[in-house]
Design brief:
single chain, 8-stranded mixed beta sheet, two-stranded antiparallel sheet
Length: 537
Amino acid sequence: MPVPIIDLFAGPGGLGEGFASLQGHKRQPFFEIALSIEKDAVAHRTLTLRAVFRRLRGTKDVKHYYSYIRGEIDEAAFRRIPAVASAFEHAAAEARCLELGKSDEASIDREIRAALKGQETWVLIGGPPCQAYSLAGRSRRANDKDFHKDEKHFLYREYLRIIQVHKPTIFVMENVKGLLSSKHSGDPMFEKIIADLSMPTEGLEYEIRSFTKKGDGSSLEPTDYLIHSERHGIPQSRHRVILLGVRKGLDMPQHQLLAPVARPVTVKQAIDDLPRIRSKLSRGDSVEAWRKAVQAAPSYVKGWRTENESVMIGTMRAFAAAATSTTTGGAFISRGYRRPKKPTELQQWLHDRSLGGVCQHEARAHMASDLARYLFSASFAHLWGYCPRLDVFPPKLLPDHINVHVDRESEAIPFKDRFRVQCRNEPSTTVVAHIAKDGHYYIHYDPSQCRSLTVREAARLQTFPDNYVFAGNRTEQYTQVGNAVPPLLAHKLAKIVRSLLNEMRRRRQAGDAVQKRPAGSVPRNLPEQLPVLAEAG
């Protein structure tokens, strides 16, 4: 029987996807999401659809899911199919649209108990909302006198309350790097959270461990809980605090640590096989108007007054001439599947040959002046291998924005990275919810496409499988992607949790065997006699 998972503050389901995809004995799921709770209605729709997919996967009826996400049938027709209707009924019980801290606690507790079905061994996962801890959020509210009253400081207490009441065997809690330095009324938040989670209530204690360093809360430094995703095969420099809580008194061994990869996975390795598309013009879009805007971009560099001016103009002209894409993408792009001879770990994780194409790969519309900035930034990165900041932009390309000005005394330009190209031979910068705003921080490295990243490209950098579809409009899709935990990273964390639970079972069964053994008898090969779930996958 799979180990139940309760997923709090689930977002679109990145953390849950990593756990739910892990297999055990006879390639059956080792974990099963018993209940996921998310307050945002659109993210909840994404969770529901993914729960339907998991229910249909491995059956002949999964073909209907593919037909739906390809746009071959509409949602009404999809839901009318008996097997799909049954899957939606199951998903409605699994994925719940509730707000922790505001929804009735007693009803939430009843749902958790019903989902667990009396199983004592289970895992709690989730990431309380991070706006109050993030460095960006604190910067924006530096002069806000009511910031210390923000309820988001204490949403972890809702997570803590579930631990106090339901006593999970293991919990995994994710949050932003800013949590390590966040203070509330002058007191460090991280120390308080560790103390609360270590002893949630009298008689219930947890070791708060790190996934990357041996020890527990008494010996580890705050930074030991920080996971650098790019060191573990994720094509993104995403740094997050992730806590591993292990209940005391259950004979839990020391766990395996998250293994680093030999080389970081780059943006190019993650997205380069996706179809080439062009951006749109926000006004009067057509292929001809778009190309005209792109071809006009090199003229903005004149007057740059650097020794590289002519080289840059020549490079931009060459890429502008190569800007021959006519399609702007779409909700689904049909194409054949070619399996790589030696697929990488990431390719094996992302690709789905049954999909028959690419979902949610559609370019945004941009102003002509922004196309010039995109072409300049991507051409600069192509030539010199790094992203230019605004203090090296040609004067004609500086945006007319309140945050872009030259201080007369220091001649310094704030927000220098307002336009950031994602360099092809490096992991991307952190994909955050701000990607929903304008895309300026997420410029594609290919100058001839002259655009920001699509939802699918952002999802790939976050390691969502290609068959993972996000509900809502495009802005809402970007927001969900940016708020998620990378599923492939979560999958690797799940492997560590699986090994802990398997070792716990082995020790329990060995202890039971010793207690039942007649005095003086010592069975041979005791470990082989103990059935445990195989650690496949």
